[in-house]
Each structure stands twice: as C-alpha cells, then as structure tokens.
What we know:
The complex is a heterodimer.
Chain A: E1 4-7, E2 10-13, E3 19-25, E4 31-37, E5 43-50, E6 53-57, E7 64-70, E8 73-78, E9 87-94, E10 104-105, E11 109-113
Parallel strand pairs in A: 2-11
Antiparallel strand pairs in A: 1-3, 3-8, 4-5, 4-9, 5-6, 7-8, 9-10, 9-11
Chain B: E1 3-5, E2 10-14, E3 19-21, E4 24-26, E5 32-38, E6 44-50, E7 56-58, E8 64-68, E9 73-78, E10 87-96, E11 102-106, E12 110-115
Parallel strand pairs in B: 2-12
Antiparallel strand pairs in B: 1-4, 3-9, 5-6, 5-10, 7-8, 8-9, 10-11, 10-12
Amino acid sequence: xxxxxxxxxxxxxxxxxxxxxxxxxxxxxxxxxxxxxxxxxxxxxxxxxxxxxxxxxxxxxxxxxxxxxxxxxxxxxxxxxxxxxxxxxxxxxxxxxxxxxxxxxxxxxxxxxx
Amino acid sequence: xxxxxxxxxxxxxxxxxxxxxxxxxxxxxxxxxxxxxxxxxxxxxxxxxxxxxxxxxxxxxxxxxxxxxxxxxxxxxxxxxxxxxxxxxxxxxxxxxxxxxxxxxxxxxxxxxxxx
Lengths: 114, 116
C-alpha cells in the first residue's frame, strides 16, 4: 500500500491554464504539507494543513490554493499557471501528536508549464 | 530562523569507499535533524533522524549520522558505499512551529555519484 500518493505524476500544460494536483495519505496522519522543488533541487515548504485547518502559508502567490476536504487529503489548485511554476511538487504528511516531526513524502508531481 | 547548509553540491566516490556528507544547521533551540535521500525521479525517503539522546544515530541502508552540538553539524556517514547509493541527499532541520505543525527546512542537497 502506498503511504502518500499523488496524482498525476506528470502534468504538462500551457500558461494561463488552471490545474489541480491531488494528494492522499493512508497513514492516519493529522498534518499534511505541500513542497515545491525547483530545477536546482531546492525544496521549500508552501503550505501545511492540520485536520483541514491551514497552519503554514509560506508567502506563496494567491494563485495557489490548497484544499483539504478531510485530513487524509490535501489538494493543490493552481490558477493562471506561469512558466515559473514549472517544478516538482511534493506532498508530505506527519503525525504531530507524536511530536516526531518526521514527514513522509509522496512520489512527486512534475509540472511543466509551456 | 532555522537554516541548513550542505557545503558539497556534488561528491563522487568509488564503490566500496567510505562516505561522509556534511551538514551544518542553525536553529535557536534543540534541533530535530533529519537526512533524506531522493533517488532519480523518486520522492524523498527518510534515512535517519535525531531528536535527543545518543548523538550517533543509525539509519536504514547502513547509514549513520553524528550530531555535534559544538560544531552545529549532523554529518552523514557510510563505511562502504554501494552503487545503488547514488542519489541526492538532503539534510533538514525541524521544530515545532505551532501546536499542530512542524516546519522542516532543507539544505540544498548533495548529489552522490558512485563509480564502479
């Protein structure tokens, strides 16, 4: 069983389009995250949700809107896509109640904006 | 603010040789430290973590890391590298941001190449 899954794995789209990336975790964790990895492999946190509540929002353009329908899912919707949005987006989850802080990552979604 | 520095962008070692990847951190309190590995086209896998206690921690795949508070370092080591260890390695520092979420700050990564 995949612990943290993301769909799609690859996403190619044109500038100006709106797209969504889905994330699901079956670990029973209560906190989920979105990270962006740029072309130089630098990983930066974008958002964190705990039990459907937004906890972290790291100065991300408001074209990016996370949605958490339940604590097992955290989707990322991106409006008006720009060339600079091309990156690999990783979803992660953790169980904060255990205070372990270790995060489990999904396989990533490679977004290419043309 | 927390930060992580991985001074080596790219390291090449021969298979069977020992390996040490460097990591220096900046954090205002006792840090929670992690090493993740990313194989090409894959997500990140946790190798090991340090929270407290013994400063030498053992991880998966034969890796270990040593926490040195005086040097603000958490270097990753492996006594004998295998070709399958070729990947990108990320050091991360984390801590509790609020009562319900932690924040991981990653280094820029070190790409390990293994020659046969």
